[in-house]
Design brief:
By secondary structure, this protein is of the alpha+beta class. Helices cover 29% and strands 28% of the residues. The protein has 10 helices and 22 strands. The strands form 7 sheets. Strands 4-3-2-1-5 form a 5-stranded mixed β-sheet, with helices on one face. A 5-stranded mixed β-sheet has the order 12-11-10-6-16. It has a 4-stranded mixed β-sheet with strand order 17-18-19-21. Helix 3 crosses helix 4 and helix 6 runs parallel beside helix 10. The longest helix has 20 residues.
Length: 412
């Protein structure tokens, strides 16, 4: 397999609104750390796959569709062989108009500039030299996350739940050239980048981690793939409740993950020398049943009623399966997938890494139990994501059965 990479600074001009927290209202005029666009190209024979990773909360559906069409026509690449992934960073600009403004005010000028930077970066990537590589896969653990749903007096609240086991698997894919020199790295982990709500641009704990690991590996490009982390939050707990950390807390957690990466890189890796690409894509229509309850925020409810007048009850979950070799595969979804779906995938084929926040965003996809329990990932989020209602239980069943079938028929 051959690889080429490219990194581009996409830090916005200030002031700008940040995405992710409804209570963070003011525009920021501060940059704690830059945010980046990171492109990885993989080629084997006549096949090419490209993943675009950005320190953003998500990619807009229309942005992805239009930009992919333009790129794939120009460079003769199959649409399903290009993935736009966001690390789900809550300290970067809002990139979509489809959600409530309480999740961040959309800046058209920034998004227009961002598209031009993506297109220019693709052109440079395609022209850049490719390096023949092998792949080393390291697997370990990191314990910075906690399950964020807890039943109290019959209600599901966003509280630390230390009794529910979470997926704390940390995977590192290290690419090396024929002389065994490090070329690039990918880190896969599942935990919301919500360590801090301070009003400053940053790439959150994922950026701190990638920067530290990159420095320790002679400055190679290192990028982060966010797993199915819809119900996993940083373990910042005081007196039984979550708290939002300061920038110093965010940095400390990022360095903890980087230290976990450093530790597992001393273990024995699985070495991949033979590559065989394959791709499969599914599109599942999911029914979001009309809401019957109202949110306590009347301003939010007014906005939601206005913005959902023309929103369809069905939303399309796009699932893209990539395999690079018999040892490494990926499933990408355009949603905030909760961890149980990733655990299901791992239980069938542990070589497949589940990656959320890819190729757009429809909202949370809770599992059947969570839909019964209620809570943010089931009910409350819909008013911020401008959906007609909560996910239908049959749709959740459809997701799990289709993921299971997809993984089983591609087991190598």
């Amino acid at each position: 397999m051959e690889v080429s990479t490219l990194i581009k600074d996409i830090t916005p001009e200030l002031p700008i609104g940040l995405a992710g927290f409804a209570h963070r209202e003011a525009y920021t005029d501060s940059v704690y750390a830059p945010i980046f666009l990171k492109l990885f190209l993989f080629s084997e024979g006549k096949q090419t796959k490209i993943i675009v990773i950005a320190d953003l909360i998500w990619w807009d559906d229309n942005f992805v569709s239009e930009t992919k069409d333009e790129i794939c026509r120009k460079y003769n690449i199959n649409v399903q062989d290009v993935i736009f992934h966001a690390t789900h960073n809550h300290s970067g600009p809002q990139t979509s108009e489809k959600f409530s403004e309480q999740l961040g005010k959309y800046d058209q000028n920034y998004v227009r500039w961002l598209k031009n930077e993506v297109l220019r970066s693709f052109e440079l990537l395609i022209k850049s030299p490719r390096i023949k590589v092998t792949l080393e896969e390291y697997i370990g653990k990191s314990e910075i996350g906690v399950y964020r749903r807890k039943i109290v007096d019959g209600s599901c609240l966003m509280l630390p739940n230390l009794t529910t086991e979470i997926d704390d698997t940390l995977t590192v894919l290290l690419l090396k050239d024929v002389n065994h020199k490090n070329v690039a790295g990918l880190i896969h982990f599942s935990c919301h980048p919500t360590c801090t709500d301070e009003n400053a641009v940053s790439s959150e704990y994922v950026g701190v981690c990638c920067e530290k690991v990159s420095r320790e590996l002679d400055g190679i490009p290192v990028a982060f793939l966010q797993g199915f982390s819809g119900d996993i939050r940083p373990c910042l707990i005081n007196d039984g409740t979550f708290y939002r950390g300061r920038l110093s807390d965010m940095k400390a957690l990022g360095l903890r993950v980087a230290e976990d990466v450093r530790r597992i890189l001393t273990s024995q890796p699985a070495i991949v020398e033979e590559f065989q690409f394959c791709t499969e894509k599914l599109t599942l229509p999911l029914l979001f049943t009309r809401a019957t309850n109202e949110h306590e925020d009347s301003t939010l409810m007014t906005e939601w009623r206005n913005l959902t007048k023309n929103v369809a009850d069905e939303q399309m979950l796009n699932i893209t399966y990539w395999r690079l070799s018999k040892e490494v595969g990926f499933i990408f979804c355009n949603a905030e997938m909760v961890q149980s779906y990733g655990q299901k995938i791992a239980g069938i084929d542990s070589t497949v890494l589940p990656v959320a926040y890819s190729d757009g965003m429809i909202g949370y996809v809770a599992d059947e139990l969570q839909l019964e329990e209620g809570g943010y990932e089931s009910n409350q989020f819909i008013y911020y994501f401008n959906l007609k209602g909560k996910l239908n239980r049959k749709s959740a069943q459809k997701v799990i059965s289709n993921l299971e079938c997809l993984v089983r028929r591609n087991i190598k």
